[in-house]
Every structure is written in C-alpha cells, then in structure tokens.
Amino acid sequence: MSDKKPLILVSNDDGIFSNGIKALAEVAAEFGDVIIVAPDRQQSAVGHAITIEEPLRSQKLKVTDRFDGISVNGTPADCVKLAHGQLLDRKPDLVLSGINHGSNAGINILYSGTVSAATEGTILGYPSIAVSCTEFGLDADLSGCKEAARRVVKLVLENGLPKGITLNVNAPAGPFKDMSWARMADSRYVEEYEARKDPFGRPYYWLTGKFELLDDGTDADIRLLNEGYATVTPIQYDLTDYDLLRKMADVDFE
Q1: Over 90: is that where the pLDDT of 221 sits?
Q2: Region for 57 from its dihedrals, namely left if φ exceeds 0, alpha if ψ lies in -120 to 50, beta otherwise
Q3: CATH number of 7-184+217-247: 1.10.8.420, 3.40.1210.10, 3.40.50.2300, 3.30.70.890?
Q4: What is the mean pLDDT of residues 46-67?
Q5: Residue 86 DSSP code
Q6: What's the predicted TM-score (pTM) here?
Q7: 83: DSSP letter
Q8: pLDDT digits (tens, 9 = 90+) for 92-135
Q9: 237 near 119, Cβ under 8 Å?
Q10: Are 191 and 207 in contact (CB under 8 A)?
Q11: How far is residue 10's CA from residue 129's CA, in Å, rounded to a whole number?
Q12: How many CA within 13 A on the CB side of residue 98?
C-alpha cells in the first residue's frame, strides 16, 4: 500500500464474500488503497452488538483477484474495532460499510449491522459512510448504488464530516437516477411471532410481521427512494434530545 493514497477500510454485515462488499471495494479503489475487514458470515440485523464472551479470530484471504481481505468471526462493529486496534498497519482515512443487500432507510437504521459498522468508524474518529441497496436479491443491479457511493465518497474525502456524524446512503437497484439529502422516515415494524413446535414437541417462535411507514413527508428517505432517488441521511450516535433537555433544565424531581 502507498502512504500517499488514502487508506479506505471496507466492511459490511452480509459477509466478506458478498457481491455488495466487492462492489463497494471497487468504488473505494478509485480513491485510494483498500483493505476489507468483514464478518466471515451473514450478520444482518445485529445492530451495534459486539462480542464479549468468546475470542475473536481473524483470517487473511483473497476476496477477489483484485482485493485482499481479513475475515472476522464477529459482528460488523467488531470488525471495525479490531481493524482499528490490531489488524491495520496504519489508520484508515475513511470507513465504508456495504453495499448492503436490503434497505437501511427509516427505522432499519437502528437494526442494521451495516450502519453500525460505519457508526463504529465514526466513534473511533474516522469519516464513515454506510451504503445500502433497496433490493435484497444477491444478484441485484448495484450500478446506481455504486454511483451514489462514488459521489458521497468524493464529497467526504474533499470536505470531511463533522465530529460524530455518519452518512447513511441508500439507493434503488438499477441505474442511477439522482440523489437527495433526506431525513430518516418515521417508521416501525409491527412484529408478529408465529408459534411452532419442533419434532420433539417443544415450542419455538418465528419472527414475521410487516414494515409500517408512518411518514408522508416529501423529504423522508423512504418516500424519495420509492420515487427512484438515492438518499443521503446524516445520522449521529448521540441520542440525547437536547431540546427537551433544555426545557426540563429547571424541572425538579420531587
């Protein structure tokens, strides 16, 4: 690796051999040297979990003919933390996570391992970007997502990001149309658990349910994605409600 080029750390939650991470590494290589550190298996919807009750193991391998990588038997956040603390010869200039197979707009941000890998990069002090495709299919056309990522990476490398801010990028599958800044749409999952029994008659439960959009705002990420736009949402890990905190400053607990 050349010290003259930015070092870009690429991770994800779909696993180190996913099509999405290979596509994102190709975009990253247009801007600098690339190192892939990602889970050795599917880790979707693990959020910002970290591993504390078993050892983490890493393995160097070839992800493609072009890219080397390191697999980790942990979560996406584990991968970024371990890369930062142990695995890299020098610190990255940028952390990228994705391209996730499936939207991480709206409430999905909270559950996403892809977004959490990028957020972990932000916590560690690196400009960080999460990138997701709205289509779950592993053979989805990621050309529009790659173009959206390309534009945002260029923007961040040239201008940086404010402290504590991660950019969450989502794009429809297929060709690139256009992109817009957007806010996180108000949404939720209405969970249902289907009760079943295993061959020994013991009960278990399978999560089903459906996604519910509670937002019709024109600047909401899900609405813009449904209209064919790629979206960029600045997010932060500081969950403090500062407006309410100021309002409650003089309220006593009596």
Answers
A1: yes
A2: beta
A3: 3.40.1210.10
A4: 96
A5: I
A6: 0.94
A7: I
A8: 999 999 999 999 999 999 999 999 999 999 999 999 999 999 99
A9: yes
A10: yes
A11: 10
A12: 36
